[in-house]
Amino acid sequence: MKALEELVNTKRSRLGFHYYPNSLHYSEKDAEIWIPQLDSLGAGWLVLISESDRAIPEAFFSALKDAQIEPVVQFTQGLEKRLETTDMRTLLQAYSRWGVHTVSFFDRPNSRSSWPVSEWAQNGLVERFLDRYIPLASLAIECDIVPLFPALEPGGNFWDTAFLSLALQSLARRNRADLLDNLVLTAYGWTHNKSLNWGAGGPERWPDARPYFTPPGEEDQMGFRAYEWYMAVASEIVHKNVPIIMMGVGVPHEPQSPVHKDWPDEKHTDICLAITQLLRGEPASDPENPTNPLEPLSNSVLAANFWLLTDETGSEHAADAWFRPDGSTRQIVNEIKGKSNQSKTLRAEMPPENVKSVDTAKDHPIEHYLLLPSYEWGVADWHLDVIRPFVKKYRPTIGFSLEQASLAVKVTVIGNTQSFSDEQLDLLRNAGCQVERISGDGTSIATQLQER
Question: What is the pLDDT of residue 418?
Fold first, then answer.
């Protein structure tokens, strides 16, 4: 796909911004004002909001292209409104002709606020989201535009990493190789007032973090490093490094949240400067603890888009804007402009695939294996009872053999370490299986299976 190749292979600055948080500022005059400002900051990306029934003018995209700035077009309509492919086709075809390579449909589908009240409470939330997302994403691919997987609410009413995992597994079950092969993720980079190192290393480094529960001494995805957790989830399913675009960077919380309160200018400057250093591939110190170095940013991160370039007088977001409506600027603007040549440092190559490539049909002919414990006296009836809804939903191969399980792409293991040791599960992983253990009493296992 040409659009994906363009995104991944073009070396450009990873520094980006969210433009006005509405679709009203795309005139030639707007381009004359803001594109030179973006250039002076060394920006390579700009997130634009588009209506589904009105195009951003071609002239605005042309001005961005001349400045070598990559647009990211967002359709932010909530899930209460179905975007019809017949209405979108003409718009996406035009955007493709005008040089758009990425579009994003919907926002935070794992959040209750994104859904009509009557639909949120229904079963099968992930499947219902995909039923709306897939036709639009398929249309985008037809138009040679990469459909970004929408950014999720960190944590969220439906836990974000679980939502992403279920969505990608469902795409695999639906044989949507077109979407998985062209997968580009997005992730919010809100810090939640934690260190920029919080959660670095992802689930591999913090294996005991669980949905809605992070034990003492563990860290989770609720911070700037959420992207690492999403990449880890995706690589388990698509067996490759997946590129990702960070959104909403440089603020502590979601800007519409009641708890959102931006930092004082000095703290905002320190944090944003540290992030720009990471974007340039330079060593950086943790603003919260200057004696601690920050871990590098993965080259799989194509861009980090800061919130917010500018906004209108009277807007609830005006205080967040780097360029304020009264003509003043935040301290960070002068700091970045003084380093604009450095900011244009280009992104390095995408890292090589770090997941072992397998011939699934040959090495793993079983798609999904449900591994149950057996005992000297036989099989527990309550195990058979508790898995019934899961079996009806996913139709896995059911068995009791580790050897058979090693032939599966995915293995769901029922039982604690007394039934199957960690060493045994490691053998399955070494065989290339995706392994998930579910343990507890009957009620707990039933609940966990129901959440899958």
Answer: 86
